[in-house]
Amino acid sequence: MTRSRLLPITPESHRVQIDLVYATDRNFTGKPIFKAAHCLLLEPAEAALRKAVAMAASFGMTLRIFDAYRPPQAQQALWDFLPDATFIAPLDRGSNHSRGTAVDLTLVDADGIELDMGTAFDAMLPESGHFHAGLPAHVQRNRTLLLGVMLGAGFTHIASEWWHYELPGSRDLALIDNEESGPFRLM
Which of 12, 114, 161, 166 is catalytic? Predict the structure, then answer.
């Protein structure tokens, strides 16, 4: 891929809910990382997201997005706060969020209520792992439902975070530094 084209994801264009927590203090750092909330994905990830939206809608669900593209500078801020490779991609590897190919999300029912996934988004705990033993059956069902939607749409998952999905082969792509020309300004 010679050109990195990030596409905007909006509730109107993609029939999703957007709650970009890194533009707020409701994330694991307790402070905003971005001054403004902009949801962006690389073209192939945006296409896969559209498939996931359609699949979720087929059984009355909506996707709520917590994070998508994040510039490398934001990844640095997260790593500085929590240098734990279980949950934060080390800087030498880079995050697939900074490649525009990863999205953090959950399922929301027809009443606008998030399905119970057993932990909050961004809970840096062993219980956040996709297949953590001992979770209640309804939590396991909800996580499996989200996993099925996202795998069916062409994403893959990482073991430690039930909310994180990315395109296969993402690490082969370059990091995208959209900070200088894009809509992101770090706090």
Answer: 161
Give pLDDT, residue 103.
98
161 assigned to active site: yes
Residue-range domain boundaries for the chain: 6-172
* Rounded distance between C-alpha atoms, residue 111 and residue 29, angstroms: 30
Structure tokens at 9: 């994801």
Task: Classify domain 6-172 by CATH number.
Answer: 3.30.1380.10
Split the chain (187 residues) into runs of 10 and give each run's mean pLDDT.
75 97 91 87 97 98 96 86 81 87 98 97 93 95 98 96 96 79 46
